Structures
1.
Amino acid sequence: MTIRKAPGKSRSKSTTVKTTFTRKTSISTKIEADAAIVWALLTNGSDYTRWNSTITSFEGDIEKGQRIKLKTTLDPKRTFKLKVLSMLSDKEMKWSSGAAPFFSGLRTYTLEHQGSATIFSMSEKIGGLMFPMAASSIPSFDESFEKFAEDLKTEAEIIQKQK
Amino acid sequence: MATKTELNQEFENCKGQLKSYLLRLTTNVEDAEDIVQETYLKASTNIDSFRGNSTLKTWLFSIGSNLAKDLLRSKKRWPENVTDICKEAAMNNRQFFGEMMQIRSTSEQGNFEIKEHISFCLTCVTKSLPLEQHLVLLLKEVYQFKAREIAEIIDNTEAMVKYYLHSARSKMIEIFDHRCALINKGGVCHQCTELNGIFNPKQNASEELAKIQMVRDAEKKSKEELFELRTEIMRSLDPFESEAAELQLHHLKHNHRVMNEYLKKK
């Protein structure tokens, strides 16, 4: 197993843990805003492209059981098709992709209240039987995760300061 | 708790604002008037349930907003380029221009003023926002409710009000920055000056434009500040009482009809 901290300056750093059949990238950052604001940003898909520089297009509604399609800067030509697995308001949301046991992904967002601030965490675990063959062609999520978290923090804190 | 007399007084005080708010939401005079009536009837019937946790004005706006949401929820949003679509329809509609000219020459509320059209344009373009964002933007920027009061009106949290407001503002700022030639030389829409040329052919358009602060400050203020000035124009005008009210309401009726037909086809 290898653990790698992505390079970066002041913004929060992501961590990637690799095993033979899986890869998990995680990031956590403190946001000086109400969890409800962070949740609103995370669950209004049609608004993603406005504040999130890693998402270039978004289709669908972020509601439990719904399917969504998005394009990211990670691989601009590819459309990621995901399913919203679970939503626990202001706390946790999970998206899944792929087909287990061959290749699947699980994206988890969690929010934790800390006084007037919110600890935002995001992770994505990809893996399966086919993973070893595809691993070298899957780009790193580190930079994209860091940008996502940074954009979310910026946007939520602007909204929080609004009168 | 409040008495019926207090309700009647407050209703009289805010009826005009409520009606203009509902017009800007529904873009239809009859709908706005019906909802105002229904708001009063509901408030009057349920006055005993008013606990005084909010002001009577907030409560009345809450009832009116809920009724408007019931009406609008199933309707599609207007596209961002609503003014282009409606302009094309108007160009192919001689009768519409004839009626507008008739109002211009005979009505006491038939003046064409650029600032009135700026407000009219904002009314149309805000219809492209998701419903909750549309409500929050109008309640805050035009009717100047506090975030806490808006949360009561739309029955949501203050955090969500802030989110809706921010995303609505951001979207409107971008749309007008790209479209409006009054604030951006590269803007594609010149409709207010074009219409001014039709309705006020003897007027010097640049002199008229110079009277509008948003236009005067276009090059020195930020996009955000220019949007503030735009909403200030809307705030200063009552769409039922202004000097251009009849002309603008007729124009709004046209756009409402054109949009209904356009969205039905889509």
2.
Amino acid sequence: MSLKPKTKALTMLLGAGCLFLLAYFLLPLLFVLYESFLGTDGNLTVSRYLAVLQDNQFQNVYLRTLKMAVIVTVIAVFTAYPTAYLMMKIKSSHKAILMSLVILPLMTSPVARTYAWIVILGRYGIVNQTLSLFGLTREPVRMLYTEGAIVVGLLQLFLPIMVLNLVSALENVPSEVEEAALSLGSSKIGTFFRVIVPLSFDGLIMGVTLVFTGCITAYVTPAILGGAKVLTLATLMRQQALVLMNWEAATVIAVVMILTTLILHTVLKRFRPRNQT
Amino acid sequence: MKNSKLLILITAMVFIFLIGPFIMIFLTSFSSDAIMRFPPKGFTMSWYAKALNIQMFRTTFWVSLQTGLLATATAMLLGVPVAYANIRFNYRGKGTLELLFSSPAIVPGMVIGFALLRFFVYVSNIPIVIGLYLGHTAILFPYTVRVVSASLRNFEGDIEQAAISLGSTPLHAFFAVVLPNIRSGLVAAFILAFITSFNNVPVSLFLTGPGVATLPIQMLSYMEYYYDPTISALSSIIIVLTVIVVQSAEKLLGISKYV
């Protein structure tokens, strides 16, 4: 149903958007990339990269960030799949209510949502009070400013995205397929893993991509729940730039962050059966 | 029915996990205790009064509101024509351009803010607020393209063709036929983009400084120094406002299909 391409019309429609992104998005990014290779004497060098990549703290932080992203993504997949599957099975009026409960956190300020975990995991928070009520602990357990706290916060932040992606993937799986598998003697679990999961695989990979890259670049959650004690890539970058005024290191971390995200997007895209968005 | 019981259990836990924290914020926002403690003791509205009276929160609320409205409006002006072109036309290099238009959603927000700071504020000396506005516009752009494209896809192009064959110019047909028909998609795009901007931290992180901050950035820096329920109260206000906006948008426009 496409009209005949008209160069003039296209220039009018796309021109402003292209110019904006070239000037205020691509150009600054290329500048940072160029800057990351700039030596003190004005020549191009990889010395900034060597300084950062050989740094022990950076290596620890990078591995920790990846590790937490893997943990969050795995938990998200295993909890979101049953949730999305059940949401497909129930009455549509109930599904609508659950959908709005999934979307609500997604639309709410991440600062407010992460702050809630200070209340829950803090010294006098509900978890510690419950533990001491049952006599399980004598002193409050320190839960804030730990990797566990960040994982919990990230999971709450990104779980809705996984659920939404799986719900829309499962919507495209005809219920007849499942019924056919069941009537042909496949068990419920077998049907789920051999019929439902492969047919919703595209949504799964999409969800994994968004959650994984989201975890790696998230700033608010590690800033509030990890602080300076448990740094991640994002909080380390901010610390280097705004606290230690080490712009050289921050520039390199910025490039590392983009590269990691791009590689993840490219690698995970290969797993998608149909390349559609 | 053993499977369904397990399913229900997992789903219930997921929703408690998603919604529980909100209830926690509400409960502590009324606590008369100055330390956040569970269960909360007493009842007071004073944290709400305090939150609303802190000058920095008032100032930064306006910065966030203005940045959000301006950046969303700009992103809509840029994004609607792009969405229209991508749905109606096929042209050479379309794939490359679509990649360009979606790239601000892939590049980490922190890096976008950082790059704008390095390039504009240090190299060309432009005010930091302009950088803030540009950064927000860049990340909202792919958002508006995506949402408007989705609603254009549902719109039958036949009416537009009819208008053109009856003598309307394509430009006139666009304004008189296409735009009114995708009105709800446009409003949904505006609301979603505005909320995204209003809540954003990563892009703003490097584009705020002495004198210029957005509300979420200000809340973060308040939390570094104070540990009282003021933030609970402020968060409660923001959550209630978000619920009202999102729920009415859902009722009127079915916003969930665009998220």
